C-alpha cells in the first residue's frame, strides 16, 4: 500500500472566501501515483472548512448570506469567545461547513458525482493557513 501526504497553504486577503481547490487536489493525486484508494482533505485550522459542493457563484453567495444569518460576524461583543479575539463566528461557520472530505480514488481519478468539487472555506482569513491532503491506496 502507498501513502502520500502533502500540506497546501493559503493566504486569503479577505475575512471570508470559498476557493475551488479541486485542481490542486488532483495535482496531489497525480503526484501520489495512487490509482485505487481513498483521499482525505482536511482543514488544519478551526476557523476554516473543506467541503464538497457545486462551483456556482450564486450558491456561494447563498452560503455566505446563510452563514452570516446563523452566525453574524458583528457585533463581535455578542460572543463569549471574543475575549481578545473577534473570530467566534468563524469557529461556528467552520463547524457547519465541516472539517474534511473523503473521496474515493478510482482509476487514478477523484470518483465524484456530476457536480461535485472540493472547496476551501475561509472564515477568518488575512493570514497563512493550511490544509492536509492524505491519500492511501495502490
Ligand atoms: Zn478563536
- Ends distance: 5 Å
**How much helix is in the residues?**
25-40%
Structural class, please?
A: alpha+beta
Indicate how many domains the architecture comprises: 1
Largest sheet: 5 strands, antiparallel
- Please identify which CATH superfamily we are dealing with: YjbQ-like
- State the total count of DSSP E strands: 8
The global form is elongated
CATH class: Mainly Beta
Number of helices: 3
| CATH-scheme architecture | Sandwich
Estimated radius of gyration: 16 Å
- Small molecules held by this entry: zinc ion
Describe this structure as you would to a colleague.
This protein has helices spanning 22-32, 57-70, 88-97; strands at residues 2-11, 17-20, 37-43, 48-53, 100-106, 109-110, 117-122, 128-137. With 138 residues, it is an alpha+beta fold. The strands form 2 sheets. It has a 5-stranded antiparallel beta sheet, covered by helices on one side. Strands 2-7-4 form a 3-stranded antiparallel beta sheet. β5 and β6 (109-110) form a beta hairpin. The radius of gyration is 16 Å and the shape is elongated. The structure holds zinc ion.
Fold topology:
Elements: E1 2-11, E2 17-20, H1 22-32, E3 37-43, E4 48-53, H2 57-70, H3 88-97, E5 100-106, E6 109-110, E7 117-122, E8 128-137
Antiparallel strand pairs: 1-8, 2-7, 3-5, 3-8, 4-7, 5-6
The protein binds zinc ion.
Zinc ion is lined by residues 81, 85, 87, 91.
Amino acid at each position: 500500500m502507498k501513502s502520500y501526504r502533502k500540506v497546501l497553504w493559503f493566504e486569503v486577503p479577505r475575512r471570508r472566501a470559498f476557493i475551488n481547490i479541486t485542481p490542486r487536489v488532483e495535482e496531489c493525486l497525480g503526484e501520489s501515483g495512487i490509482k485505487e484508494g481513498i483521499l482525505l482533505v482536511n482543514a488544519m485550522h478551526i476557523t476554516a472548512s473543506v467541503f464538497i459542493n457545486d462551483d456556482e457563484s450564486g450558491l456561494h453567495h447563498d452560503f455566505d448570506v446563510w452563514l452570516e444569518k446563523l452566525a453574524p460576524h458583528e457585533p463581535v461583543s455578542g460572543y463569549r469567545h471574543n475575549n481578545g479575539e473577534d473570530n467566534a463566528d468563524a469557529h461556528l461557520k467552520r463547524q457547519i461547513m465541516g472539517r474534511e472530505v473523503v473521496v474515493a480514488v478510482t482509476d487514478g481519478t477523484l470518483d465524484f458525482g456530476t457536480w461535485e468539487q472540493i472547496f476551501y472555506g475561509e472564515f477568518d482569513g488575512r493570514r497563512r493557513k493550511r490544509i492536509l491532503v492524505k491519500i492511501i491506496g495502490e
